Amino acid sequence: MFQVMIGLVVHSQGDPRVGQHIAELLAPGQGRAANVDGSAAGIQPEGHWVNHRRSIRPDGRQAAQGMPGKVGVLGIGEDHASSLQPQPWLRSSPYSERVNRDTPRRVERPDRPRPGTTRMFATAVPGMAALVTADLEQLPGVHLTDAGFDGGSDLVLFDVDRGHRVHLQGLRTIEDLFAETGRTTRSDGDLPPGIASRAWPPDGVEKALSAWSAEVRPLSRTMTYQVIARVLQKRSFPPAELRKALGQVIARDKPRWNLASPAQLEAWITEYQPGRLIAGVRLSDASAPRPDSQKAARPGTLPPTVAAALVGLAGEPGDVLLDPCCGSGTILGEALAAGWPAVQGIDIDPEAVQAARRSVPGAGVLEGDARSVDLPGETVDAIVSNLPFGPEYEAKGDMRIWLTGVLNEMARVTRPGGRVVFLVPSIPNNVMPRDLELRRKEPLRLPGLKTRLWVCDRR
């Protein structure tokens, strides 16, 4: 019998929760710990792994390098030393890497459902999981349980207390909402029929269909359904085999139901982390296009869920919100829905201006150049925009010169203390105006394009 001694620097700042954060680095096992000064660190025998490639402060934010902290010495028994590995439920794609860093710290163990709750999950545009979790944290009765990426969408898993599902109706940053039937794991040699059976257990199906009946329409003895399947590890078996297996499980469970496309009900099964799968029924309108099949009305149109997230990052509604590259007006519409009283849009394309006026009649939309906005200085509370990028919308001429002009104009018309939120893949060195202080940047993947989210404050 031996013990592995591991030293961890924990930025406690005197916070008594230091033991809790050390515990989150332990795999389930016999953990013992003490601070350098000899005081007990309060380690619990069980915990789950969080991303420890970066130093984490007690408030969940990344600590600055060189920040003072305490060292806790952990003693882990031989039987459990090999289990001190990153648990797979926080691994995800490059676009959902922010899930690892920004998923709120009250995430609970995913294998322990809370009594009296509905287990649910939501899909989001790749890279938006952190924004969705932040929105969910503001809702009463919602408890985050897991997060991941299934190759097409970010997924956020959560439990909702009885009587609180109504609060999800105003959530505008998710692509689709599901009532979970079950979740399972797969290992080498695991075949689709077994996976599908475990993901469609009778008790979980009954609860999920009860939620579907309450949120969508009453169930009938004869229903039409279709199955959507996604897998990350396609070398074991393709998605079609898993889709067929779940369809067969549903057919045995509901013999009066019929496969169809389109259908009244959609059953999804997806591998949201390597080896971890979840199944559920779609609560959003099954007759609406799925996120992976949506086609924009105009090329380059921003998905409404992304537009809603950008508007949300602009803060509480003030007086005036401006989009100087408004296109067909998706951001303008989300700003009005969020409660901004005066929403203004500008676009250099006359066709885009006409489209925006038709789709968002409540906004003021003018033809103009984002490099020369016809507004006095410091008159706008927030700017939110999807700057043109991609082969169809690259600005003519030197992109560096164009971007310099646009960002300088954004800084000029925004009031001190205002917020500037925009999408653009990259910003060359020395282009960001001094009056804009960068607060946040994150990668996003829009349909067929990679970009980046930038959030700045006007100094």
Name the features:
about 450 residues; alpha/beta; VC0802-like; Rossmann fold; eight-stranded mixed beta sheet; disordered N terminus
In a few lines, what is going on in this structure?
The chain has 11 helices and 18 strands.
Structure characterization notes:
This protein has helices spanning 18-23, 78-81, 97-102, 129-137, 192-199, 202-215, 239-253, 304-313, 330-338, 350-359, 399-413, and strands spanning 3-10, 31-35, 70-77, 117-124, 142-149, 154-161, 176-185, 224-230, 258-259, 265-273, 276-282, 320-323, 342-347, 364-367, 380-386, 414-423, 436-446, 449-458. It is α/β, with parallel strands linked by helices and 459 residues long. It has 3 domains: 3-86, no CATH class; 94-292, VC0802-like; 304-458, Vaccinia Virus protein VP39 (Rossmann fold), CATH 3.40.50. Helix 5 crosses helix 7 (239-253) and helix 8 (304-313) crosses helix 9 (330-338). It is elongated and about 65 Å long. The relative contact order is 0.09.
